[in-house]
Amino acid sequence: MSSELLHQTAVIHTDTRERCQHALLHSRRTRHGSAFVAIRCQRDSRRSYNWQIKREHGCQGRRSPCCQSSGRSDADIRRPKLDGSDIQHTARQEDPDSNGALTLDANPVSQVVEVVKEARWQRRFTIVGLCFTAFMLCNMDRVNMSIAILPMSKQFGWDSAKIGLVQSSFFWGYLTTQVAGGVWADKYGGKMVLGFGVIWWSIATALTPLAASLGLPALLFARACMGVGEGVAMPAMNNLLSRWVPVQERSRSLALVYSGMYTGSILGLALSPHLIEWLHWPSVFHIFGSIGVLWYLVWEWKSASAPDEDARCSKAEKELLAKGTLERREGTAIPWKQLFSKAPVWALIVCHFCHNWGTFILLSWMPMYYQQHLGMDLLKSGIFSVLPWITMAIFANLGGWLADSLIHKGMSVTRVRKIMQTIGFMGPALFLSQLSHVKTATGAVACMMASQGLDSFSQSGLYSNHQDIGPRYSGVLLGMSNTAGVLAGVMGTAATGLILANGSWDDVWNVAVVLYLVGTVVWNVFATGEQIFD
């Protein structure tokens, strides 16, 4: 066994932390140079304590950290034997030719010793990483229009109403595949559906300049086609992670993937102005679309819909995921009536609408706000539009780690989800309401950064809840709630253009704030973190 690639883990299940520690005190090490040290104690769903013991290679004698911590010499330390049997009450002497097998003697309450060999880089990390990059491309291709619309509107003579029409046309297609994406992912697998979505929207992105040259109707159609592809991304990703990520890693994995969207917004908003300055606005769509085609080739090579379909996934990881994730079932009927009869499902739907209204307004209109209201030029509006998404990328991952930590410490999933989402609603409501009182560009950007940073806690609240309440139907549930979210995008971006034609930016923010407050009440009254669908 290579010490660089593999390690050996013993997982001991006991009913109390003290007895688990007692079991560890009986672990032994030999003079041959391999040591076992406890690396994690975790309380599982059965309320037993699981200690993982990692075999470290290269421990040399009594001066090594493991020997110093134990206070024992080489002569009185024996390496325990990991043989997969029940833990014995008395230590067994190691056979000199046993190649360092591990023996554990422990309190009789200890029931199981499991032996696994696992690669340090797990296959699920690859899947999560590829989903992260897919979501990064998703928002790169989505936000580039919010920058390109500035020179395009001048070239084609569009007013605010037509700009709002162009911005909202993406959501027409996005709306049509929300539920369908979840159904397709459950039926055909997340790999196929997410791959289809990325290649479809990438081609539509690359063809956007051609469509614009043909006229406004052709451009609206191209943007709607792009929305069709992006519409399947969230349901397909949710389906994939429900099979690839164990529950104890769920919040931070989802937060990481969703932070790909924020990273994509950062890159799209930062790169687009420079590409427009150097190569004119069509280059933004050509370059970003080409990157998506390259991603698709890697996805087809490296991904799988589930661990049992991936020959490169180790047996140990498959066993781990089999315990903490959902197995794939072919042809499972969707219980639509039951889904729509539950209050927590309606909480997801209503709150997704309330959340996305403000989020999509900022996503689509922030550069225009900076240019029209604050008087910034193209480059400055692009640069300052990046900053709120940087805070979102950072805070989303902090929120994910915080949520998982609270759950590991014993706080109920329901309470954690409510805390995270309350922050995700009340934070933006507070800081967007201050924009009417801010008169400087610095103050406005600071409010935007604080609003979006706190908004990202929603990834550990609302956006993690689909897998909590119905892991088998998580893709469909996300499709249902995101359909409402997309309606908010269609209505919000179009309504913003109409509001600005007859009102002010303060009116735009006030509508968003009211919806955030409504969402806070609905979420705390009706949401739950308990599984309600088998």
TrEMBL record:
<protein>
    <submittedName>
        <fullName>Ascorbate transporter, chloroplastic</fullName>
    </submittedName>
</protein>
<feature type="transmembrane region" description="Helical">
    <location>
        <begin position="253"/>
        <end position="272"/>
    </location>
</feature>
<dbReference type="InterPro" id="IPR036259">
    <property type="entry name" value="MFS_trans_sf"/>
</dbReference>
<feature type="transmembrane region" description="Helical">
    <location>
        <begin position="125"/>
        <end position="143"/>
    </location>
</feature>
<dbReference type="Pfam" id="PF07690">
    <property type="entry name" value="MFS_1"/>
</dbReference>
<keyword id="KW-0934">Plastid</keyword>
<keyword id="KW-0812">Transmembrane</keyword>
<feature type="transmembrane region" description="Helical">
    <location>
        <begin position="278"/>
        <end position="298"/>
    </location>
</feature>
<keyword id="KW-0472">Membrane</keyword>
<comment type="similarity">
    <text>Belongs to the major facilitator superfamily. Sodium/anion cotransporter (TC 2.A.1.14) family.</text>
</comment>
<feature type="compositionally biased region" description="Basic and acidic residues">
    <location>
        <begin position="73"/>
        <end position="95"/>
    </location>
</feature>
<dbReference type="GO" id="GO:0005315">
    <property type="term" value="F:phosphate transmembrane transporter activity"/>
</dbReference>
<feature type="domain" description="Major facilitator superfamily (MFS) profile">
    <location>
        <begin position="127"/>
        <end position="531"/>
    </location>
</feature>
<feature type="transmembrane region" description="Helical">
    <location>
        <begin position="192"/>
        <end position="212"/>
    </location>
</feature>
<dbReference type="InterPro" id="IPR011701">
    <property type="entry name" value="MFS"/>
</dbReference>
<feature type="transmembrane region" description="Helical">
    <location>
        <begin position="218"/>
        <end position="241"/>
    </location>
</feature>
<feature type="transmembrane region" description="Helical">
    <location>
        <begin position="386"/>
        <end position="407"/>
    </location>
</feature>
<feature type="transmembrane region" description="Helical">
    <location>
        <begin position="345"/>
        <end position="366"/>
    </location>
</feature>
<dbReference type="GO" id="GO:0042170">
    <property type="term" value="C:plastid membrane"/>
</dbReference>
<feature type="transmembrane region" description="Helical">
    <location>
        <begin position="476"/>
        <end position="502"/>
    </location>
</feature>
<feature type="transmembrane region" description="Helical">
    <location>
        <begin position="163"/>
        <end position="185"/>
    </location>
</feature>
<keyword id="KW-1133">Transmembrane helix</keyword>
<dbReference type="InterPro" id="IPR020846">
    <property type="entry name" value="MFS_dom"/>
</dbReference>
<feature type="transmembrane region" description="Helical">
    <location>
        <begin position="508"/>
        <end position="526"/>
    </location>
</feature>
<dbReference type="GO" id="GO:0009507">
    <property type="term" value="C:chloroplast"/>
</dbReference>
<dbReference type="InterPro" id="IPR044777">
    <property type="entry name" value="SLC17A9-like"/>
</dbReference>
<keyword id="KW-0809">Transit peptide</keyword>
<dbReference type="InterPro" id="IPR050382">
    <property type="entry name" value="MFS_Na/Anion_cotransporter"/>
</dbReference>
<feature type="region of interest" description="Disordered">
    <location>
        <begin position="60"/>
        <end position="101"/>
    </location>
</feature>
<keyword id="KW-0150">Chloroplast</keyword>
